[in-house]
Design brief:
Blueprint: E1 5-13, E2 16-23, E3 31-40, H1 43-49, E4 64-72, E5 84-87, E6 90-91, H2 97-100, E7 111-112, E8 124-128, E9 132-134, H3 140-143, H4 146-158, E10 166-170, H5 174-185, E11 190-195, H6 198-206, E12 211-214, H7 219-226, E13 231-236, H8 241-247, E14 251-259, H9 273-278, E15 282-285, H10 293-301, E16 311-315, H11 320-328, E17 335-339
Parallel strand pairs: 10-11, 10-13, 11-12, 13-14, 14-15, 16-17
Antiparallel strand pairs: 1-2, 3-4, 3-8, 3-17, 4-5, 5-9, 6-7
Bound molecules: zinc ion (2 copies).
């Protein structure tokens, strides 16, 4: 690919992104060059675009993607041109303190495709061989959703519902709907879902929600009345600090609260430490993912989780600058996928 150019969506400064002609990246000896076929737009991309993340510009974002192997580095043994693949965007050094203790998501030399190095909103992307997974006949659009589901799988490995548990999920957006399906697969006997949008709740019902509640001023009373003992597991996917604060009251004694949605870094909530002590509560975080790509591919390949349902619009790369503006303004429905 020496000297060849490609189209890429480049963010060159805060709130400024455009599709440009740039050089096709060169794979190093241990890298794979992937021809991108589909790439999903994620909340992280919006944070990067708005300069609210640790990314440095210029940057090609895009960390949820699928494509075809276009070229392999000299030392690559497991992949050949033409294979259909996805890639875990998280690159771990496997040498540092945290990697050696199997908490690679806190790698001290952490790199992420589309976050700290150029990503997949481009015709081609380079990733280390160790991050690449075969997807067989899975569609590329579905393949682009392996990453978000992998994060959800990681979250529920950390806060796993036990057989027969009841679960409350805040948010019926793409991530909330994945949590809902996975919680049912994990053995939850009952799942309630809360959202501000009625049409999203309808979708939640189709995907197995046993009870849906429209969020509003009376929500906490409604939950208290209907579920006075609360829920074994409460999952927040809203990232709204007030929602997380109110969620604590609906965790059953000895239950868990999984904080999955991304709250603003400087936000604070009011929680009574006495309540956490007295009621045996667990408050659990979940950052990115760690080695959950393969189980996630297995879940999708065997149709145990419907990921296609979270796709909103499919657009072309040329439409991405405009779509990004719509996305940060909250004017897109469900997940946008760029197809090539
Ligand atoms: Zn993402
Ligand atoms: Zn490391």
């Amino acid at each position: 690919m020496d000297g060849k150019t490609m189209l890429a969506y480049v963010i060159d400064k805060e709130r400024s992104g455009a599709v440009k002609e740039v050089a096709v990246p060169e794979p190093g000896d241990h890298d794979v060059l992937i021809k991108v076929m589909a790439a999903g737009l994620c909340g992280t991309d919006a944070h990067i675009y708005q300069g609210e993340y640790y990314s440095e510009f210029p940057l090609v974002p895009g960390h949820e993607f699928a494509g075809i192997v276009a070229q392999t580095g000299k030392a690559v043994k497991r992949f050949t041109e033409g294979q259909r693949v996805v890639a875990d965007p998280n690159i771990f050094c496997e040498k540092c303190h945290f990697c050696k203790q199997n908490v690679q998501n806190f790698c001290q030399d952490f790199q992420a495709v589309g976050v700290t190095r150029d990503g997949a909103f481009a015709e081609y992307v380079v990733v280390p061989e160790g991050c690449v997974f075969e997807i067989g006949a899975m569609s590329f659009t579905t393949g682009a959703l392996v990453e978000p589901l992998s994060c959800v799988v990681y979250g529920q490995l950390r806060a796993r519902p036990q057989l027969g548990d009841n679960v409350l999920i805040y948010g019926a957006g793409p991530i909330g709907l994945l949590h809902l399906q996975l919680a049912k697969r994990n053995g939850a006997s009952f799942a309630a879902v809360v959202d501000v949008k009625a049409e999203r709740l309808e979708l939640a019902q189709k995907l197995g929600a046993d009870r849906v509640l429209l969020s509003g001023s009376g929500l906490d009373d409604e939950l208290r009345q209907e579920f006075p003992l609360g829920f074994h597991l409460v999952i927040d996917t809203s990232g709204v600090p007030k929602v997380v604060e109110n969620a604590v009251a609906h965790v059953k004694n000895a239950g868990s609260l999984l904080i999955f949605g991304v709250c603003p870094p400087d936000a604070k909530i009011n929680v009574s430490p006495y309540e956490i002590y007295k009621r045996d509560l667990k408050i659990i975080g979940s950052f990115a993912l760690k080695k959950t790509f393969q189980p996630t591919i297995n879940l999708i390949e065997n149709q145990l989780i419907d990921v296609a349902v979270i796709v909103g619009e499919q657009i072309k790369l040329s439409q991405l600058p405009e779509q990004m503006e719509k996305f940060v303004a909250g004017k897109t429905a469900m997940k946008t996928v760029v197809t090539f």
